[in-house]
Amino acid sequence: MFRAFVNVFRVPDLRKKVLFTLLLLCVYRIGFYVPLPGVDQEKLARHWQRGAAGGAAEQAAELFAMFTGGDLGQSTLFGLGIMPYISASIILQLLVTVVPALEKIAKEGESGRRKINEYTRYSTVVLCLIQATFWVRYLNANELVYPEFRNTLQFIVMALTGLMCGTLILMWTGEQIDEYGIGNGISLIIMAGIIARMPYVFIEVWRGFAASIGGGGAIAGVVMTPEKIVFLLVFFVLVVAGSILITQAQRRIPIQQAKQTRGRRMVGGMRHYLPLRVNHGGVMPIIFASSFLLFPSMAFGWLYSVWPTAVWGQLQDWFRPGEFVYDVSYVGLVYFFAYFWVSVQFRPKELSDNLRDMGSFIPGLRPGKRTADYLEAVMGRITYVGAGFLAAIALIPSIVATQLEIPYRISAFLGGTGLLIVVSVALDLIQRMEANLIMRNYEGFLGSEGVARVKGRMY
Asked: By the 8 A CB rule, do 456 and 441 touch?
């Protein structure tokens, strides 16, 4: 593996791509700490620790920071992160499947893809304006702005412009990484935001461990005994291994190519496979389920503040992470959105028609409707397994935090969406580097097994 990392920097083209990607990610992390003009950062930090701690607002902020690469807990130019662009991309993907005009544009090849990307950028600007407006109103309403800027047109214009420009810069950064760097730019930005939180978690674990060993008690409510640390390390390795396994898992459907006569030669007749991913939806079902479960807690909390009765208070407690009702609802929503995402993205009829047009078929099945029904049934079965894994990995952090009395920001690295995003993006990055190394006749990260070695170098 270390030899493969050395080989990455031996290839000039690959070295330039890696260094360019690292440079843009460093720019992102520097801009992450540029404060928003007019916001009292110290007062915002105290407000977030005191007023939002343990509530729906804190859950929303944690999820927002994990999914977007931003952080509303410290209001910066990159506070909104890349979420508006991600939301716009998801909306356009869904609209392409239901709007015939957009579907026609998407089938036009490269020009259609550019047109869809253009619509995505315009939608990003609109979503940026909406989300930034809500955040600026929240800052003014809670008096988190300096008195001389509070509710002034000057601050509103500066804040809206800064937040929108920050998101657009991140969008541009991701596109530049896609074109001139290596890996998926947007995914790498999100992964960098998640990994950047790990040193703070290690420091907190060490302080809790030192305090518990020294007999000084817990610091900030963290009690880290040696048994808990060993459990966290072992469980972290197991969860990472399971995440890699389910991310790479495929159901291979045998495909037979029909024989054709061309002149005096018989061509075709080859046998290959159609890979169907077990976790076809990726992390999208968890993102949707987590977002939807924020609304019941926030709604019941608002009703309890307006009409303080025991019913609203009990309902609000039921929908807190770690409670039975919350966990059951979480599992149900993960399954629902897993099948919803597959129904939107997976097109068995279109796939069946493509196989027929290429002269291929599934042995024992007639091309057309029989093949489409079979593919749909297989995808439904493997999605059940993939959704079960997603539900399990999504509940692990809250269960560990509740049972072992560990803060959620620490247990979140044992599972959940953050870990799944890091594993998926890291695997994609390694595979792209592997392909570049093998293409240039270098040994990749997986070693020389199964790799045809060719004499000479290819540049």
From this structure: yes
Taking only the tens place, the pLDDT of each residue in 194-210 is: 888 788 778 878 887 77
Half-sphere exposure of 426 (CA within 13 A, CB side): 14
Q: Which CATH code for domain 249-414? A: 1.10.3370.10
- Residues 362, 414: contact at Cβ < 8 Å? no
pLDDT of 407 reads 73
Can you tell me the distance from the alpha carbon of 376 to that of 219, in angstroms, rounded to the nearest whole number? 53
| Residue 125: burial class (beta carbons within 10 Å; 0-12, 13-18, 19+) | middle
CA distance 140 to 112: 42
Give the integer Cα–Cα distance in Å for 115 and 95. 14
Q: To which residue do tokens 């159609």 refer? A: 274
Average pLDDT for the chain: 80
Select the CATH number that applies to the domain covering 14-196 from these four: 1.20.1250.20, 1.10.3370.10, 1.10.10.10, 1.20.210.10: 1.10.3370.10
Residue 232 CA from chain centroid, whole number:
23
Residues counted in the chain:
459
Say which amino acid occupies 254. Answer: P
Domain boundaries along the sequence of the chain = 14-196, 198-241, 249-414
pLDDT at 63 over 90: no
